[in-house]
Amino acid sequence: MSRPSPWCGRTPLYGFSSLKRSLATSPEPTVNRRPTLLAALTLTAAAALTLSACGSDDSSGGKDNDKVAGADTGDKVSPSTGPSELTTTGRPKIDLPSDVTYEFEWKKTGDARKDAVLNDAEQRIRAVDMAIAKQDPLDKGYRFYSEGTAAAESQKYIQEFVDHKARTTGLTRYYNESLTIKDDGTAALVYCEDQSKAFNKFLKTGKTDVTPVTKDSYVVYAGTLRKNYKGVWVTERLISQRGSAKCRP
Question: Which residues of 14-42 are buried (b: 16+ CB within 10 A; e: fewer)?
Fold first, then answer.
């Protein structure tokens, strides 16, 4: 099966980037690890970066493609997976495969609001990978931490994995964060992602597509978050750029 990739940079992500990059010689469908969001984002001076968004492939199949995760989709989720469980705090329980791991090097700031932003941004990342593992583009977990454009693009991102019957595997590292709370109450968060040890795993064959490390293994993200009525810092917009000098070692 051959199809355009929603990624920029990679062989060709979670507006994110694309699914992890794949070797052209792979017998599996060529997908990348994080697709790039087509969201417009105004960065503060403290987080000013030159980011370019890449086009996404809107031709993904699936009966849920005409639904938008950020809109009112009711309580419908994939019948094979069921809804995400809730913890005693009312937040979704994040349950990931044991081979999906992270290193979050984001530092505690000592500021209650900023630390809450970082925590909820981290939970969104985990929740997106959980939806991918469950093969559920409408899973409640990531929708709890996303609204608007970010939620809609997350749905498309997850759908790409579902279409290719793949999920993430390996270790992903997050670092070099920069966070500003603006006067209007929103938060601008910029951070780096190291995908050098994270790959695609194809569910039908069980094969992990181990790819070489290149500059495109390093991705910079810039997002806008807002505290909703539940007290959760939801991501509203997110854009990314591969190969950023800011993130490369």
Answer: bbbbbbbbbeeebebbbbbbbbbbbbebe
